[in-house]
Design a protein that fits this description.
This protein has 20 helices and 26 strands. The protein has 608 residues and is an alpha/beta fold. The two termini are 28 Å apart. The structure holds 5-amino-5-deoxy-1-O-phosphono-D-mannitol.
Length: 608
């Protein structure tokens, strides 16, 4: 996710902006830039790469001397990481500079309109549209021009705007993307996140959705989008700088678990419209989609577990056979692929060596490839034109959480898209799935309220040597992810088992006091699961169920149950995984493990 900073006051702006951006580096970024107004011009200096590259560029070109400026670190969503696509973006006259976090869904239409009106675009970004819109509406009052611009925007944004003709102000606005104002003494600050201003002040205004700010060196005037003044309480930040980086959470993993509702919302944004799934970036034509013989999914680790959910869902909704392979196996097993197949590669980083090699192997064998990834411009996106981006924002903890849930969302969207184009679902069925998808962010938030109960379980089981996860159907896929999460960060031996397979081997390991997490979210398989729960309970296991709200059979069968809100049966993995992520987190914490950086593991595995 991108970072925004802004400064207005008596000091040179550039060093303050760079320091602020440094504090946001932990969020991940692929390019950076600043815009500073001095007496003669509005200088925009930006570059692909790290802040050190931006510093080098500033040294080359000369550091602008003004004391009014905005800065940005970009995590690409529209357009690859490049100098041109980096923020700030300017209008045709070069008198306006804009930094933006979020996504403008209708930017293509706006861009077309602006081009017809004679505007010239330099970048591929949605953000540049905003700069040209402000130019279009500016008549001497920047707040007014920003308000008129915002009325035209669909999507999410946090904005910082400068105009050369307005040397005494920065204008900012927020809709579904965080923004704060830091209040100094004779100087003021703007930022997307509190850590960027903490060095200067602990007094902030948290800007809410639907608000516009006129920031001068001694005032922060806040209005709603209709122009009415808004009164705000000052928020005194009590966090130390380290805690602030993590948004007040003790670890990135916990922060990322709690970011899942927003990440899912962002991944759905702009892809559901009028009861249909729209994936405008895909170029796969109808004849090809209708003639598809088989789909192969290949991925590693958590992404592989998402792929298993994808198999169930695509087969159910679009009636196409799907094989799922670990990338490290797929690349060497000589799979039977051809032009009537589609290979889906899933990779958060887009850089995993085995997944990349699988992509190449699939292409060599004549298959088209669709990549599901979180990183714009990553290697997988350079090797296939068909990409569905997950919009999870940077994931910093080694243990994948929000990347997994957004991969599931991308797979649901693609499965529904296939079903829609192949007409394997009625309009009404499609509409029901879409409505259920739209409810998911709220349902995840509700699920996360189980944390307190999970803390108790983590304390109870933290010294166990083995913990088992069982489930059937989609629940088995979630069990695998729960087990991986636990072992990778807590180092407790964990194993996932298809519940029906227990008696073919693993039951021998179930003895008095062994904890078993039983996933019971698949209504159609519930009775079978209850029988399996009885099998393990009869051997002395302590069974923790994860079940649909109000399932009294589950409640009777288990020692304890964590309930998730009821949703469509195919969507339960998005909810059921949350208590397992939280359990892994708290078990690791209770055992004193380094939660965000588990031993022997790296975030991105770029070697075989
Ligand atoms: O970047 P990728 O999605 O390709 O990474 C694949 C795996 O290395 C990754 O999912 C790994 O299993 C996670 N750290 C598990 O939490």
């Amino acid at each position: 996710m991108c970072g925004i900073v802004g400064y207005i006051g008596p000091q040179p702006a550039a060093p303050i902006l760079l320091k602020g951006l440094e504090k946001l580096e932990y969020r991940g970024y692929d390019s950076a830039g600043i815009a500073v107004r001095d007496l003669e011009r509005l200088s925009v200096i930006k570059t692909v790469g790290r802040l050190q590259d931006l510093r080098a560029r500033l040294e080359e070109q000369g550091v602008p001397q003004g004391s009014l400026g905005i800065g940005h670190t970009r995590w690409a969503t529209h357009g690859r990481p490049s100098d041109i696509n980096a923020h700030p973006h300017s209008d045709c006259s070069g008198r306006i500079a804009v930094v933006h976090n979020g996504i403008i869904e209708n930017y293509k239409e706006l861009r077309e309109w602006l081009v017809e009106e004679g505007h010239t675009f330099k970048s591929e970004t949605d953000t540049e549209t905003i700069a040209h819109l402000i130019e279009r509406f500016y008549e001497g009052d920047l707040v007014d021009a920003v308000r008129k611009t915002i009325k035209r925007l669909e999507g999410s944004f946090a904005l910082g705007v400068l105009h050369f003709d307005q040397p005494q102000e920065i204008v900012a606005a927020r809709q579904h993307s965080p923004l704060v104002v830091g209040l100094g003494d004779g100087e003021n600050f703007l930022a997307s996140d509190i850590p960027a201003v903490l060095e200067h002040t602990k007094k902030v205004y948290i800007i809410d959705d639907g608000e516009v700010v006129r920031l001068t060196s001694d005032q922060a005037e806040i209005f709603d989008f209709a122009g009415r003044p808004v009164r705000k309480e000052i928020f005194e930040v009590a966090w130390d700088p380290v805690l602030a980086e993590k948004g007040g959470y003790p670890h990135f993993m916990l922060k990322e678990i709690y970011e899942q509702p927003q990440a899912v919302r962002d991944t759905l944004q702009g892809r559901l419209n009028g009861g249909r799934v729209v994936l405008p970036d895909l170029t796969l034509d109808l004849a090809y989609l209708r003639g598809l013989r088989k789909i192969f999914i290949t991925a590693a680790g958590t992404a592989y577990h998402a792929g298993i959910v994808g198999k169930y869902v695509i087969e159910k909704l679009a009636r196409i056979p799907v094989e799922v392979d670990l990338s490290s196996e797929f690349r060497y097993r000589n799979p039977m692929l051809g032009p009537d197949c589609l290979t889906i590669v899933i990779s958060q980083s887009g850089e995993t060596a085995d997944t990349l090699a699988s992509l190449r192997e699939a292409k060599r064998l004549g298959s088209k490839v669709l990549a599901i990834t979180n990183v714009v411009g990553s290697s997988v996106t350079r090797e296939t034109p068909e990409v569905i981006y997950t919009l999870a924002g940077p994931e910093i903890a080694v243990a994948s959480t929000k990347a997994y849930t957004t991969q599931l969302i991308a797979l649901y969207l693609f499965a529904l898209y296939l079903a829609q184009e192949r007409q394997t679902l009625s309009e009404q069925q499609l509409a029901e799935y879409i409505a259920a998808l739209e409810q998911l962010p709220q349902a995840i938030s509700a699920t996360l309220s189980c944390e307190e109960a999970v803390v108790g379980l983590a304390q109870e089981f933290k010294d166990k040597e083995d913990i088992f996860f069982i489930g059937r159907g989609l629940d088995y896929a979630v069990a695998m992810e729960g087990s991986l999460k636990l072992k990778e960060i807590s180092y407790i031996h964990a194993e996932a088992y298809a519940a029906g397979e227990l008696k073919h081997g693993t039951l021998a390991l179930i003895v008095e006091g062994v904890p078993v997490f039983a996933l019971i979210t698949q209504e159609s398989l519930r009775d079978k699961m209850i029988s399996n729960i009885k099998e393990v309970k009869a051997r002395g296991a302590t069974v923790i169920g994860v079940a649909n709200e109000g399932d009294r059979f589950a409640e009777e069968a288990c020692d304890q149950v964590i309930f998730i809100p009821r949703t469509n049966e195919i969507l339960t993995p998005v909810l059921a995984v949350a208590p397992l992520q939280l359990f892994a987190y708290h078990a690791a914490l209770a055992r004193g493990c380094d939660v965000d950086k588990p031993r022997n593991l790296a975030k991105s595995v770029t070697v075989e």
